[in-house]
Amino acid sequence: VNRIAVLTSGGDSPGMNAAVRAVVRTGLFYGLEVFGIMRGYQGLIEDDIFKMESRSVANIIQRGGTILKTARCKEFYTPEGRKKAYEVLKRRGIDGLVIIGGDGSFKGAMALSKEYDIPCIGLAGTIDKDIAGTDFTIGFDTAVNTAIEAIDKIRDTADAHDRLFIVEVMGRDAGYIALHSGIATGAENILIPERKTNINAIIDSLVEKERRRKLVNIIVVAEGDEIGGANEVARLVKERMPNIDARVCILGHIQRGGSPTGIDRLIASRMGYHAVECLIEGRHNVFVGIQNNRMNYIPLDSVGKKKGTISEEWMKIVKILAS
Ligand code: F6P
């Protein structure tokens, strides 16, 4: 490879900038020309591309968001869109592409690399941690810590008023943010898409807790749980417990922002470095993950959502510690 380009795609996640920095600086270290593509695949199709130097990525390792901006691009999911993208890459002589994003972004990369001879390397950047084959995704740790900070604050006011709080965290297909933030904040219940929710059993236990005057309770709900989010859970609880003092708090997009944690900066730097190594070594069309502290290169065409892998043990721990 001689000329590589990097883009960020899909929902942003804290640490994407650290990953862009790592890709750019490693590429330059190896004597490559490095280009930044604005707004993900949309910017690629529209040729919104600029040459990057070492200083283009100065002072960004600590910043949330992405300096390259991001988009969810429908056109790229069509063969015509990908043809336009390929023509842009060819015209510019770009012979390697690094995509920082989630599983949807990887599927796009896979389609492009199958149709055209352009090596693609993915970096797992999503707060949801819903990609199989990696223990970490860039942004997850920050999102969990943001949720923890918020839920701790909620607990203060919940405690002052003896209230039930139902807190909704992000994760439309995955419950990892809910599970991790819920355990770390001592939630009584954690509702996640990977598990069936027995809402009646949850309400039974609230009734029982009310009987023994345990009135401060926090339930953490992933937005994609089968009940349909925190508002719906609150409605069902109030149906059976009309006198309960309950409030809903939806944390929303604050979980996507903020300065990345140390862990997210480290994994972004490590993955970014290895993405360029992959391109140089000719290891193509994989995404870079980390498993058991070793690099794991997963073929893009086998990318799958991590579902149903939340261990029984964690669920047992939640139950025991909340009793
Ligand atoms: O995939 C990351 C994520 O934050 C999900 O947890 C959430 O469901 C979704 O993106 C929100 O997407 P949008 O940015 O389109 O509101």
Automatic annotation (TrEMBL):
Mg(2+) binds at D103. GO terms for biological process: canonical glycolysis; fructose 1,6-bisphosphate metabolic process; fructose 6-phosphate metabolic process. One of its GO terms (cellular component) is 6-phosphofructokinase complex. Pfam families: PFK. GO terms for molecular function: 6-phosphofructokinase activity; AMP binding; ATP binding; fructose-6-phosphate binding; identical protein binding; metal ion binding; monosaccharide binding. The active site is at D128 (proton acceptor). Residues 3-279 form the Phosphofructokinase domain. Its main location: cytoplasm. It is found in: Cytoplasm. Substrate binds at T126, I127, D128, R163, M170, G171, R172, E223, R247, H253, I254, Q255, R256. Its EC number is 2.7.1.11. Pathway: Carbohydrate degradation; glycolysis; D-glyceraldehyde 3-phosphate and glycerone phosphate from D-glucose: step 3/4. ADP binds at R21, A22, V23, V24, R25, R155, G186, A187, E188, R212, K214, L215, V216. NCBIfam families: PFKA_ATP, PRK03202.1. Homotetramer. PANTHER family: ATP-DEPENDENT 6-PHOSPHOFRUCTOKINASE, PHOSPHOFRUCTOKINASE. Catalyzes the phosphorylation of D-fructose 6-phosphate to fructose 1,6-bisphosphate by ATP, the first committing step of glycolysis. Belongs to the phosphofructokinase type A (PFKA) family. ATP-dependent PFK group I subfamily. Prokaryotic clade 'B1' sub-subfamily. This is ATP-dependent 6-phosphofructokinase. It comes from Paraflavisolibacter caeni. The gene is pfkA.
